[in-house]
From TrEMBL:
One of its GO terms (biological process) is methylation. The keyword S-adenosyl-L-methionine applies. SUPFAM superfamilies: S-adenosyl-L-methionine-dependent methyltransferases (SSF53335). Gene3D superfamilies: Vaccinia Virus protein VP39. The active site is at C70. PROSITE patterns: C5_MTASE_1, SAM_MT_C5. It comes from the Bacteria. Its EC number is 2.1.1.37. It is an enzyme of class 2 (transferase). This is Cytosine-specific methyltransferase. Pfam families: DNA_methylase.
Length: 329
């Protein structure tokens, strides 16, 4: 049985990926400071976790997954940086190193870190390079790659950098990831969407009717037979940028629904319904909590591909619970 630890765990995309793969595992713990995300996670996986910080945390997992806050790395944010001296939310990535150092000689066999690709930009790359160097000091081999959800079956132009650090002599090989044909956006869109999802802001409505299909629409795109994917799912849809708008038959336009956003992050409708049960929102209003949780998550399908490659050497035995990750690596 594989033991995982989810730091900055959000709504549990790593755990969902392992469930989808049928890999026997134990979530030895989950750490997330956002109380609403914790409630959704508990509802989805029938747990009783409480909001808490990762600072000073100590456990002994086989795989540690962390996706430290991206706001201070993101182009859409203020780009305050992620160095320890910056003291930002994004600098919490270095708390993971402290956790590993404090495990009394135990080290996770694999550490997976996900964030926005802007960490490779000139202003942000210093913090990323420091992270890689510190992981090497701890004995890890680092591999990283920018992955797009569209290459793993999800019609979302979501590019994220994934770093996989292992104690194995051989580095993780991103070239071996199993890609999938992108599914059509129609499989993810709902029918009979309520009126409160339609674009009504005068500043937006005035720009929509005569816009060519392939042009940007206030930071998003019109989704129809020509544009068959969405832009990156963000924490809000009624702002610039957003993930795109859907052209309706009556030439009106609407935002993506919360359920559509969850689908486009790789979650099933039952997961969304469980989260909706603890975050019902206000009738006739967009549900900001559920949008926020989708935008902050990791695409489940991308994690599935990473887990498959990470466990590939003896994957059949692992999937059947006949071999541990320790025996594989």
């Amino acid at each position: 049985m594989i033991k995982i630890l989810e730091l900055f765990g959000g709504i549990g995309a790593p755990r969902k990926a392992l469930i989808n793969l049928g890999i026997e595992h134990k979530a030895i713990d989950y750490v997330e400071w956002n109380e609403k995300a914790v409630r959704s996670y508990n509802a989805m996986f029938d747990n009783r976790y409480k909001p808490e910080s990762i600072v000073g945390y100590s456990l002994k997992p086989d795989i540690l997954i962390h996706g430290s806050p991206c706001q201070d790395f993101s182009i859409g944010g203020k780009q305050y940086g992620g160095n320890i001296a910056d003291g930002t939310r994004s600098s919490l990535m270095f708390e993971t190193l402290k956790i590993i150092e404090g495990l009394g000689g135990w080290k996770p066999h694999a550490v997976i870190w996900e964030n926005v690709k802007n960490v490779l930009s000139g202003k942000m790359v210093g913090a990323f390079s420091r992270y890689l160097k510190d992981m090497e000091t701890l004995g890890y081999r680092n591999s990283y790659e920018i992955l797009d959800a569209r290459d793993f079956g999800i019609p979302q132009a979501r590019e994220r950098i994934f770093t996989v650090s292992t104690l194995d002599d051989k580095p993780f090989n991103f070239n071996n990831l199993e890609c999938k044909k992108m599914r059509p956006i129609s499989e993810f869109l709902e029918e009979d969407v309520p009126e409160h999802y339609f674009v009504t802001q005068p500043s937006m409505v005035s720009r929509l009717p005569d816009m060519p299909i392939n042009k940007d629409i206030f930071g998003g795109r019109m989704l129809d037979e020509v544009i068959d994917y969405v832009y990156t799912i963000t924490t809000k849809q009624m702002r610039v940028p957003n993930s795109g708008v859907v052209r309706m038959d009556d030439d009106r336009f609407r935002y993506l629904t919360e359920k559509e956003c969850w689908r486009l992050m790789g979650f099933e409708d039952k997961d969304f319904q469980n989260a909706l049960g603890v975050h019902p929102g206000r009738p006739g209003m967009l549900n900001s909590a559920l949008y926020h949780q989708a935008g902050n998550s990791i695409v489940v399908d991308v994690l599935e591909a990473i887990f498959k490659e990470l466990l590939f050497p003896r994957k059949e035995q692992i999937f059947k619970g006949q071999m541990t990750l320790d025996q594989v690596l």
